[in-house]
Amino acid sequence: MSKDTAIFAGGCFWCMVEPFDEQPGIESVISGYTGGHVANPTYEQVCSHTTGHTEAVEITFDPEVISYKDLVEIYWRQTDPTDASGQFQDRGDSYRPVIFVNSEEQRKVAEESKKQLAESGMFDEPIVTSIEDAKPFYPAEDYHQDFYKKNPLRAQIEELGGRQQFKDTKWAK
């Protein structure tokens, strides 16, 4: 199996695992932190908004089974791409929406997808999700991994903070 990785930030990382985890060709989805300037940060440090890190997921996938373009499409449908200050009930820079790219090819795919979304007319406001070069990714503490499996009720409550309603109204089409 050939392998590649994709890193997406779209608010609380708990809510970003399941939509990717269920896809064929996905080897792993790790919750963690990236984009900041502190090595091996803790959850508490990231929550203090002093590290520059964003909560994100790192996806290891087989590009022969699922394409990076497919992953970007799944990513959009989990987020509000018009909200740069966080996602749903999760506010602040550690929840900002970012596609972290690790190659020129990923950058091209992400930029093209963002352009298509902007031109689609689905949103009245501009698409503000940023596309940035991947930086070191630090896996979060064990209790954050596979959260939707370990704490299904809590994960469901998080989804009800506006994300699920947004997905049902904006992305159901």
Automatic annotation (TrEMBL):
One of its GO terms (molecular function) is L-methionine:thioredoxin-disulfide S-oxidoreductase activity. Its EC number is 1.8.4.11. Residues 5-154 form the Peptide methionine sulphoxide reductase MsrA domain. InterPro entries: Met_Sox_Rdtase_MsrA_dom (IPR002569), Met_Sox_Rdtase_MsrA_sf (IPR036509). It catalyses: [thioredoxin]-disulfide + L-methionine + H2O = L-methionine (S)-S-oxide + [thioredoxin]-dithiol; L-methionyl-[protein] + [thioredoxin]-disulfide + H2O = L-methionyl-(S)-S-oxide-[protein] + [thioredoxin]-dithiol. Keywords: Oxidoreductase. It holds the Pfam family PMSR. Belongs to the MsrA Met sulfoxide reductase family. This is Peptide methionine sulfoxide reductase MsrA. The gene is msrA.
